[in-house]
Structures are given as structure tokens and as C-alpha cells.
Write a structure and sequence with these properties.
The structure holds 2 protein chains of 2 kinds.
Chain A: E1 2-4, E2 10-16, E3 28-34, E4 37-44, H1 52-57, H2 65-69, H3 76-91, H4 97-125, H5 131-151, E5 160-161, E6 164-165, H6 173-194, H7 199-205, H8 213-218, H9 224-228, H10 235-238, H11 259-283, E7 304-312, E8 315-323, E9 331-335, H12 337-342, H13 345-349, H14 354-364, H15 368-372
Antiparallel strand pairs in A: 1-2, 2-3, 3-4, 5-6, 7-8, 8-9
Helix pairs in contact in A: 3-4, 4-5, 4-11, 4-14, 5-6, 6-11, 11-14
Chain B: H1 4-12, H2 20-29, H3 41-50, E1 73-77, H4 85-94, E2 100-104, H5 105-110, E3 132-134, H6 141-157, E4 181-182, E5 187-188, H7 198-205
Parallel strand pairs in B: 1-2, 2-3
Antiparallel strand pairs in B: 4-5
Helix pairs in contact in B: 2-6, 3-6
The chains are: A alpha+beta, B mainly alpha.
């Protein structure tokens, strides 16, 4: 469909998605182009709206835990953590030290595997379909194996409980995890050797989809997308939840806010996560993994509301819970990082070429399960 | 051609005897091209099945095609919402015959954990015929490979002549299935009775 504007030039409207190899799920963009340049972009959501929030109102508090796995299905364990943290805040539950360390370990491993998968997916968006994804998924599988040994499931872990975690680390798991994490930097170095500094990659990423720090803050962006714009904001540092204040790590920041900064930031974050993991492996104490005061059946938090948030691999993952004192949540609201980060997509894309739209979308790192909920 | 002893005796001497049907099905079943089409969580396991460790290429199904015009197999990997269902049916209609559908995961089979949701379709078999169901939430990559092998066995058994023809060889079979429309509360129609439990519908009509 073409349409003549005042200057006599013709624009072309293209519908990208919902079935498209690079929309990371079922996401649709109505793009208006002048030649190859994007002049307008309208996102269309809701193709994966699975009624998370409504379903949670009909389930017990703990019954929603497996559903949080399916929000951001690349990294289920951090979703568990966000929800558990919100309920713990609501009911005032203490978490034993060992459980907090286990949470940090599985949470940071989730971050590593999410960013690893990101490296594969963004190369796919740039047209290097297959090869980079194969390498990334090879490494991701090794982390999934560790998750499977711990939780019994590759992806849908359902691992956190209010006041702790579901099961203790099996015998020998910590040694296996430590041995694997030691081999990880070699893989990352190899990836970097091929990718960072590659001329094609640089020309596809540098200066594309620039987002200023001011606009990023105004738009409510969070996570790697915000930090790539040069804002020093990491909830692990700001809130200091869990045992993060006891661990030493740096928060990487970008300078330009383009796709390359977002790409590079993830690599740097993986390196910091490895630092965190090594400290956590050394510091993890013995002790209980679950607060014995928390009832599994008939759990009723007091009347009130709470907002719990964590620094998920994609940004600020928050749960706003309202309790009327019953066995079910009165209101259960999710603040998904992917959706909020996506709101400035048009701003990043207007003026770029249509081929860059996919790269910009990939650099935000969205998961549709979380965007549409 | 049913004399297996004679056939194996000839094979030992380097002579392969086969029927046209067998040769045709052998070629088809070992080069299934799936549609590159992920809906939700299961799509990640589908990618894992296609990646280096599980390597779907061993079974000839690694050529994921982004266009339905080039695909033989539609892997419904994930929750089909009511907003997405008409598009899934349309994609299915766009695929050329012979085509197959593999429903991967609890959501595609029945709605799964989200079955109670107001926006979730309770199984894609309400609108299009499904050949293989792979249960799980999400199914492991091994389960998907098992589903693929089951489909290959099914293709192997399909006859091109005589009675009980498969859908793609049956001139009476519909060329495409009606695409549901968005209604005020639900999809219109809520299911296609010709596809969804056709036997039960036939017995209740009598």
C-alpha cells in the first residue's frame, strides 16, 4: 500500500511479523518507509497475551510460582526470585544466608546464559544466521545441565520458595558449577575474538539506534539498555537485595547508547557475573535453605501491598502484589522489563534503514512471554 | 514386492528393489522442512533441538524456512492465543501440500497451564488437523525429536493409491481450512467441527 505525502514522495507501509524470523516470538511492527528509511513504526502487542495476572488471582500465592517461569522463558529462575522477593517483602519473611547465596549463584548463572543466548540471537538478526547461535546454545546447554541437576528441569525450574529455595545443592554440584564457570571465560574470549572488532559487526552496530541517557531515563528503561546509554543504575547496587552488598562487582556502562554499546555491555556483564559467582562459591555457608516459619499450605500474607524488584538479566523485573489477607492475591501486577524497554522502539528506529530495525529490536533483548504476559 | 526374503537376498548382491511409493515416502520423510515459527517457551526448546547438541539435522529436518510457501512441517511451538489463532490457520493454508502439523507442548495441545485464560485457545486442533502431539511443558528437545521420528513413521506408511488416502492425496479433502474471525468475546466460530473430534461429531449427529 502506498500513500502520497505532501512533497509528492511515496511511502510504503510494511507489516513485519507476527511470523518473522527475527521478531523474537510473535511481535508485529507496522513500519512506514520512505525508500528504505523508516519514518514511522507502530508496534502491535498481544499475540502472546496469556492472562498471567488474571490467572494468578485465582491461584494460591505459591501456585503462581510455576507461572512466573513462563514470563521470561529464557531466564525462569530470576523471575522466581522477583516474585519470591515481593512476597517476602509483603509478609516480612527472612531468608537464610545459604538460600540467599544459592539464589545469587543460580541468578547470576541465569544472567550468563541469557546474555550468551543474546549473543547468538543478535548475530542472527544481523544476518549471520546459525553459526553464532550454535556456539551460544552449546554453552547455554552446559548451564542448563547444571540447572537440571539442581532443579530437575532444563528451563522451567520452579525453584524459589517464599523464605528460601526448594531444594539444597546436590552433592558435588558446587564443584561442577565452579569447574564449568572456570572454563567459561575461554569461550567468551573466543566469541570476542570473532565478534568484537569484526568490521561487519561494527558497521552494523555502531551509531545505530542511539538512545540518549536523558530519554532513556524519561522512558523508564532499565537494565542493560539503560546502562548502555551511560546511566549508572543497577538494582543490585541501588537496592542491595539479597547478599549483593557483600559481593564485589562493577557496573559496566556505555557511552554512546547505540547497539554496539548494548552488545558490548552484555559481554562485560557476563565477566562481572563470573566475578560474582567466584566470590559466591567461596563464601557460601552451610545452614538451612528454607525459613521454617513459612507455611507451604494455607500461606496467608497479612493485608497490605508490596512492590518487590530485582535486576533481571533484561532489566528491572518488579512484582506489585496486593493482599486482602486471603489465600489468593487480590491483585498481582508484573512490571516486565522487556515491555517498558520496548516503548522507545520507535524513537530508536525512525531515521534508520529497515534492515537496522531488526538489529535494534534484537539489541533491546525482548521476550514476548514477558512483553504480552 | 512383499517378499522380504527375496528383497534382502537381492540387496546382498547390490540390487535394490523398491516401489514408487516407498521411494517417494523415503525421500519425503527424510527431508522435512519445518516452518521457522516460534510462539512461546517451546520455541526455545525447538531452537535447542536444532542447535549443535541435539542436532535435528541428523533426521533431515534442520532446514527451517521462514516462508510457509517452502515448508512441509509446521511445529506449533507454544501457546496459541485467540489473537494469534487466525494467523496460524492462515500460515497453515499458505503451506503447500503435503504438509504436516506437530503440536509441541501442553499449550498447543490443549491450552496447557493457561487453559483457564480468557485469551488462550484450548488446543490448535480446533482449527487445523494435527498429526503428532508432543506433550511436555516445554517438551525436552529429545521429545521433539521423538515426535519427529513418529511423524516420519507416519509418512512412511502413507499410501498414494487405493483406499484410505492421506489428506494430501485425497481429492475430497478440503484445500484449505476456514480462518476464524475475531468476535466480540471469542473467535467465530469457536472451533471447526470438521477438524475437532470429527468422530464424536459424526456419532452425535446420527
Amino acid at each position: 500500500m502506498t500513500e502520497a505525502d505532501g512533497a509528492g514522495a511515496q511511502t510504503l507501509d510494511v507489516s513485519l511479523g507476527p511470523q518473522h524470523p527475527s521478531t523474537h516470538g510473535v511481535f508485529r511492527m507496522n513500519v512506514r518507509m520512505d525508500g528504505e528509511t523508516v519514518v514511522k513504526l507502530q508496534p502491535v502487542f498481544g499475540y502472546l497475551h496469556r492472562n498471567h495476572e488474571k490467572l494468578a488471582e485465582g491461584k494460591s500465592w505459591l501456585g503462581s510460582m510455576p507461572f512466573t517461569d513462563r514470563l521470561d522463558y529464557i531466564c525462569p529462575i530470576t523471575n522466581n526470585w522477583g516474585y519470591a522477593l515481593a512476597v517476602e517483602k509483603l509478609a516480612g519473611i527472612e531468608v537464610p544466608d545459604r538460600a540467599e547465596y544459592i539464589r545469587v549463584i543460580v541468578g547470576e548463572m541465569t544472567r550468563i546464559q541469557n546474555h550468551t543466548a543474546f549473543l547468538g540471537f543478535i548475530l542472527g538478526d544481523m544476518g549471520a544466521w546459525g553459526s553464532a547461535l550454535m556456539y551460544a546454545f552449546r554453552e547455554r546447554e552446559k548451564i542448563l545441565d547444571l540447572f537440571e541437576g539442581l532443579t530437575g528441569a532444563r528451563m522451567m525450574a520452579n525453584y524459589m520458595r517464599f523464605g528460601g529455595v526448594r531444594c539444597d545443592l546436590p552433592a558435588g554440584w558446587l564443584e561442577k558449577a565452579r569447574a564449568y564457570i572456570e572454563t567459561y571465560p575461554a569461550f567468551l574470549d573466543e566469541m570476542e575474538k570473532f565478534l568484537t572488532g569484526n568490521e561487519i559487526l561494527l558497521s552494523r552496530l555502531q551509531g545505530v539506534g542511539v538512545m540518549s541517557a536523558e530519554r532513556a531515563i524519561n522512558g523508564g528503561l532499565s537494565g542493560p539498555v539503560l546502562r548502555a546509554s551511560g546511566v549508572d543504575y543497577d538494582i543490585r547496587k541501588v537496592d542491595g537485595y539479597g547478599v549483593y552488598p557483600r559481593l564485589k562487582f562493577r557496573v559496566p556502562r556505555g557511552t554512546v547508547g547505540d547497539c554496539f554499546d548494548r552488545f558490548m555491555l552484555r559481554i562485560l556483564e557476563i565477566r562481572e557475573s563470573i566475578q560474582i559467582l567466584q566470590q559466591a562459591f567461596a563464601q557460601i555457608p552451610q545452614g538451612p535453605i528454607l525459613n521454617p516459619a513459612v507455611k507451604t499450605r494455607g500461606f496467608k500474607p497479612p493485608v497490605g501491598e508490596a512492590y518487590g524488584r530485582i535486576e533481571g538479566p533484561k532489566g528491572e523485573l518488579g512484582f506489585h502484589l496486593v493482599s486482602d489477607g486471603g489465600e489468593k492475591p487480590y491483585r498481582y501486577h508484573i512490571r516486565p522489563p522487556s515491555l517498558i524497554n520496548l516503548t522507545l522502539l520507535e524513537e530508536m528506529c525512525v531515521g534508520t534503514k529497515i534492515a537496522d530495525v531488526m538489529v535494534i529490536l534484537g539489541s533491546i533483548d525482548i521476550v514476548l512471554g514477558e512483553v504480552d504476559r | 514386492m512383499t517378499d522380504d526374503a527375496l528383497r534382502s537376498e537381492l540387496q546382498k548382491r547390490g540390487i535394490f528393489v523398491t516401489s514408487f511409493e516407498d521411494l517417494y515416502n523415503w525421500g519425503r520423510k527424510n527431508s522435512l522442512w519445518p516452518l521457522q515459527f516460534g510462539l512461546a517457551c517451546c520455541a526455545i526448546e525447538m531452537i535447542a533441538a536444532a542447535a549443535a547438541r541435539f542436532d535435528m539435522a541428523r533426521f533431515g529436518a534442520e532446514v527451517f524456512r521462514p516462508s510457509p510457501r517452502q515448508a512441509d512441517l509446521m511445529i506449533i511451538a507454544g501457546t496459541v492465543t485467540k489473537k494469534m489463532a487466525p494467523l496460524v490457520v492462515r500460515l497453515y493454508n499458505q503451506m503447500p501440500e503435503p504438509k504436516y502439523v506437530l503440536a509441541m507442548g501442553a499449550c498447543a495441545i490443549s491450552g496447557g497451564p493457561f487453559k483457564e485464560g480468557y485469551n488462550v485457545l484450548k488446543g490448535i486442533d480446533r482449527y487445523i488437523p494435527v498429526d503428532v502431539y508432543v506433550p511436555g511443558c516445554p517438551p525436552r528437545p529429545e521429545a521433539l525429536l521423538e515426535g519427529l521420528i513418529t511423524l516420519q513413521k507416519k509418512i512412511e506408511k502413507q499410501r498414494l493409491f487405493g483406499k484410505q488416502l492421506p489428506r494430501h492425496a485425497d481429492p475430497q479433502a478440503p484445500a484449505e481450512y476456514p480462518v476464524p474471525a475475531y468476535g466480540p468475546h471469542d473467535l467465530i466460530p469457536p472451533l471447526n467441527p470438521d477438524v475437532f473430534c470429527p468422530k464424536r461429531n459424526a456419532s452425535s449427529a446420527e
